[in-house]
Design a protein that fits this description.
Glucose Permease (Domain IIA); disordered N terminus; about 45% helix; about 260 residues; alpha+beta; two-stranded antiparallel sheet; 4 helices
């Protein structure tokens, strides 16, 4: 009986202890909640009492529209300035440089004169006329043979023989310069006249060369000498002029040119 009575007080003590602990914990929780509420309300009042309005808060935010407009106007200004600078360069610098590159009137004249000189340097071949009037009694035979009464054989013949009486005046077939006056052992008294572009004419079997001298410039149709009978290789033929045309020392058929 005594042991059963003693156990009851112990159980009561434990129950009381648990109640005290629970109550203390609850009190701590309540106090903590109260303190938290007080602190929160104080902070809220602090921010409310700071006097910052919505407009003031908005003013702290950067004005993107104004900045965009300013940036756009600044860019536009830069572009306009750049365009104006380009126009000034085109109006002032480029025309001067272009004018310097373009030929002046004097340069154009000089270029025209140079072109004219080049055109003038292209000299046409001379035109030839018969040095004497008469019949061709012996043809040109460079690649063939003709009969020579004097030699009594068939020979080549590098010119033509034009029938003419003795003392008939022989005239220059084309304008040129008297290169030589000589006595050829085959064709007798001979005058050689040089022409442009490498042409030469040869007048042989002459009686005289009294009208010209070596180095003299002659015109077409100017008198050179007279027809004779001085050619040893053609002495048996009737009086005539032996006439040759050469270009660059190559014999040509005179009948194709006169």
């Amino acid at each position: 009986m005594r042991r059963g009575r003693r156990s009851l007080p112990r159980q009561d003590n434990k129950l009381k202890y648990l109640l005290y602990v629970s109550g203390a914990s609850l009190i701590v929780i309540i106090v903590s909640f109260i303190i938290t509420s007080i602190v929160y309300n104080n902070n809220l009042e602090k921010y409310s009492s700071s006097g910052l309005t919505t407009e003031q808060m908005a003013s702290l935010v950067p004005n993107l529209e104004n900045d965009t407009e300013q940036a756009s106007s600044s860019i536009g200004k830069d572009i306009n300035e750049a365009i104006e600078e380009i126009e000034e360069v085109e109006e002032n610098v480029l025309p001067e440089e272009t004018e310097n590159l373009l030929p002046t009137n004097s340069e154009k004249v000089e270029n025209t004169e140079e072109v004219s000189q080049v055109v003038e340097e292209v000299i046409p071949d001379p035109t030839f006329t018969k040095p004497v009037e008469g019949e061709v009694i012996k043809e040109f035979a460079k690649d063939s043979l003709v009969y020579s009464q004097t030699l009594d054989e068939w020979i080549t013949h590098y010119g033509i023989d034009i029938k003419a009486d003795r003392t008939t005046v022989v005239k220059a077939s084309a304008p040129g310069k008297v290169k030589a006056i000589k006595n050829d052992p085959r064709y007798g008294l001979t005058i050689i006249v040089e022409h442009v572009n490498g042409y030469k004419t040869v007048y042989s079997n002459l009686l005289s060369t009294e009208f010209v001298t070596e180095g003299e410039t002659v015109e077409q149709g100017q008198s050179l000498g007279t027809v004779g009978n001085s050619a040893a290789f053609e002495i048996a033929d009737e009086p005539h002029l032996h006439f040759e045309i050469l270009k660059n020392e190559e014999y040509l058929d005179p009948t194709l040119y006169i």
